[in-house]
Amino acid sequence: MIKIAIASLVMVILLKRVSLKDISTAFQSARMLCIGAALILLVPNIYIQFFKWRYLVRLLKPTVTNREVFQSLLAGFTFGFITPGRVGEFGRAFFIKDCPWVSLLGITFIDKLFSLGVVFFWGALGLMFFVSRQLYLYTLAPIIVFMVIALIVIYYIMFHPEVIRAFLYSINIILPFRDKIKLVMGSLDNFHRRQALNLLIMTFGFYLIFLIQFYILVCSFDNARFIPAFWAIASTMLVKSLLPISLGDLGIRESAAIFFLSKIGVHDSAAFNASILLFLINLLIPSLVGLVLVLKHRLIFQRNNHKPGISRT
To answer: Is there a domain that residue 13 lies in?
Structure first.
């Protein structure tokens, strides 16, 4: 309810800046071919996420089926939709059979870490692009140093999984549920630098498609040069990731998009509409499909647990 309230409040504030008339006018004059192209990009978008998740799951369960992976991925969309920062995507772990869910949480964390690393990389470059146009060198230098150090730390951890294992081992003594912590650490046994490089390439591929998809949606409502728009969109996604406080990031993503895209001459209504469509295409549609699978899974689980002679495990 708090997340819904925050999303509603931010959207109300936005609609005072961007009138409903401007939004409606922009939709009426939208380039439907561009919107269709962005919708088609949902297919490679989902496929790369599926391929990436299957790659990780097979480190723990080589016999996992494509159907199982796909259902798990879509269920993660549904749980991620209702949680800030999409942390609900960790719910994927409960839809892979015959594999310790705690271990699956470990590789889900790795997946989220790499996604955050890529978002931070492109977003940091985007912010430097905008900040460099507003600040003097002596003001800009500390910001650049901070971002470079943060990127080095993040990518060092990403390419040295043993650092994560060592950290978990060091705190395992003082944590409860030690057996579960050991399972999480065990999920990293087959994850080394080669796997890290493969995962990073897949994550970069997915994110580039995502940014291009956003750019195409912006072009559906207004003209925008690719390079400045690319950095504006990358900055938008970084800010959205750093402020996961509303339902489906509604309002936060739109506010950031309006702020950054307006700096390069894109109308507020175009930025707002592109952001809303991105939300509908990439999050709402997969979440609704995942909801059907979650409800189906729950019905099957309840039916099995009410059968005589079957105990709940």
So the answer is: no
In single-letter form, the type of residue at position 277 comes to L
- Please tell me the distance from the alpha carbon of residue 29 to that of residue 219, in angstroms, as a whole number: 12
Count the neighbouring beta carbons within 10 Å of the beta carbon of residue 141. Answer: 11
Residue 31's nearest CA partner among 282, 277, 286, 257 is 277
List the single range of 34-38, 41-45, 304-308 with lowest mean pLDDT: 304-308
User: Would the CA dihedral through 31, 32, 35, 37 be positive or negative?
Assistant: negative
What is the average pLDDT score of the chain? 80
Q: Tokens standing for 201?
A: 């390439």
CA-CA distance, 72 to 134, in Å (whole number)? Answer: 45
Q: Which domain holds residue 283?
A: 22-304
Domain total of the chain? 1
Give domain status of residue 311, yes or no: no
What's the pLDDT at 312?
42
Q: Measured between alpha carbons, how far is 202 from 196 in angstroms, rounded to an integer?
A: 10
For residues 273 and 23, the answer to whether their CB atoms sit within 8 Å is yes
pLDDT at 174 over 70: no
Q: Is residue 236 part of a domain?
A: yes
Q: Average of pLDDT values for 128-149?
A: 70
Task: Answer yes or no: are the C-beta atoms of 126 and 71 closer than 8 Å.
Answer: no
DSSP, res 83: S
Q: What is the DSSP letter of 247?
A: G
Global pTM reads: 0.81
Q: What is the Cβ-side half-sphere exposure of residue 190, based on CA atoms within 13 angstroms?
A: 13
Query: Does 194 reside within a domain?
Result: yes
Q: What is the pLDDT of residue 156?
A: 81
Give the C-alpha separation, 26 to 273, whole Å. Answer: 8
